[in-house]
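Journal club side-thread
Mid-discussion, someone asked how the predicted structure for our own chain would compare to the paper's figures. Pasting it here so we can look after the session.
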Amino acid sequence: MTTNKLLFLSFLALGMSISLFSCREVPGCTDEVALNYSPDANLDDGTCSYERDMFLGTYSGTSVCTQPGFWNSNDFQFTINEDPDDGTKVRLAFPFNMSSKPVIFTATVDGNTLLFDDRTNEPDDLPLCGVENPPMILKGTASLNGNQFSFPDFKFHVEGEDNQAVCPVDCMISAEKDP
C-alpha cells in the first residue's frame, strides 16, 4: 500500500470516528449555572439542580415587626418559589392582610443565604401608608440552616413621592420549612 493511500485511509477513519462521536447524544444537565452541570452533555435531561432548590417550599413561623399590626404574627406563613427567569434567584410570596394577593420579592441565592435588595409593585391593588400602589422595597439577608429559616434584618419600606422612604419597618422572622 502506498503512503498516500495509507494516509488517506487514516484520515478517513479519523473523520468517521469524530463524526460518529460528535453525533452521539449525551444526556445530562446542560445549564452552566446548575450545581450538577455536565460539560459533556448535549441533551438536557431535566436533572439540573440549583443552590436555590433547598429554599423552595412553604414556611411557618413567627414575625415580629417594629410597626404594630405589620406582619406581627405567631402564625406567619410564606412561600419560596423558583424564579423562572434566573436559576440563582428565588421569589418570596408574603401574605398581606390588606390585599387578596401576596407581596412578592426576589432574592439572590448565595450558598445557604438569601440576599434581598428588591423593589416590587406586586400586588398592584395595595394602598399603603397613604400611597396608592406604592413601590415596596425589601432589603436584608436571610439564611437557612437545615429546615430553620432566619431573617433577622428584614428591612421594608414604601417608596413615596421623590423616592422617599415612607413607613419604614424592621422585622425579625424565624420559621421552619413545612414537610
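Post-session note: The beta strands are 27-28, 43-44, 57-65, 73-82, 89-94, 103-110, 113-120, 136-145, 148-159, 165-177.
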